Amino acid sequence: MKSDLIRCSWANTDNELMRNYHDNEWGRPCHDDQKLFELLSLEIMQAGLSWQTVLNKRSAFKDAFVDFDYLKVQSLEPQLPQLLANAQIIRNKRKILAIIANAKVIASMASQGTTFNHYLWSFVNQTPIQHHYRSHEEIPSTTEVAKQISKQMKLAGFKFTGPVVIYSFMQAAGLVNDHETGCFLYQKIAHDAG
Length: 194
Known about the structure:
Helix 2 crosses helix 10 and helix 9 packs across helix 10. The mean pLDDT is 95. By secondary structure, the protein is mainly α. 52% of the residues lie in helices and 2% in strands. It has a two-stranded parallel sheet. It has one domain: Endonuclease III, domain 1 (Orthogonal Bundle), CATH 1.10.340. The two termini are 33 Å apart. It is globular and about 50 Å long.
C-alpha cells in the first residue's frame, strides 16, 4: 500500500519492488564494486524494456549471474546456452555477453589495482552531481558527462554502455542526484553528498 511520503513520480506505484528500490537504493551513492556491477548489468538488461520488468526478475538475475560476483561472472561464457534457456531472465544474447565482457574488464582493472568504484567516481570527482529537477519530464535521457563516461568505458572495453544506459546507471548508482526536488529523498541525498 502507498504511504504518505512524497516520492519521485515514477515511484508512485502500487508495485512494492519499485517503491522499495526508489526508497532504499536508487540515487544513493554506491561505492561497492559488486553492487555497482549489478546496477550496471541491470541497466543493460533494462535497455528497451521497462524497469519494472527488470526489478521483477532481479532475484532470477542474481541467481543466474552468481550474485553479480564479477570474478565468477567473467567465466560464465561456457554457460551461455543455459543462460539463453533460462526463462526467468531476459534472454538477450548480446546483453548477456556484454555483462560477461564487462565482468572481465572490471576483474582486469582489479588485478591492476584499480577498483570499479574508483574508476567510475573519478569521472565526477568523487562527488555526486546535484540536479534540481522538479518533475520526471525535465530529466534528460543522457548528458554530456554520461556521453564522456560512455566513450571512456567503451575504450576500456566495456560493452553495451551507450550514453543512455550510462546515464541511467549514474542515476541508479548515485553519481547524479536525479530525485525530483519534491521527493522526500532529494534533500537527504543532497545533504549527505555535501
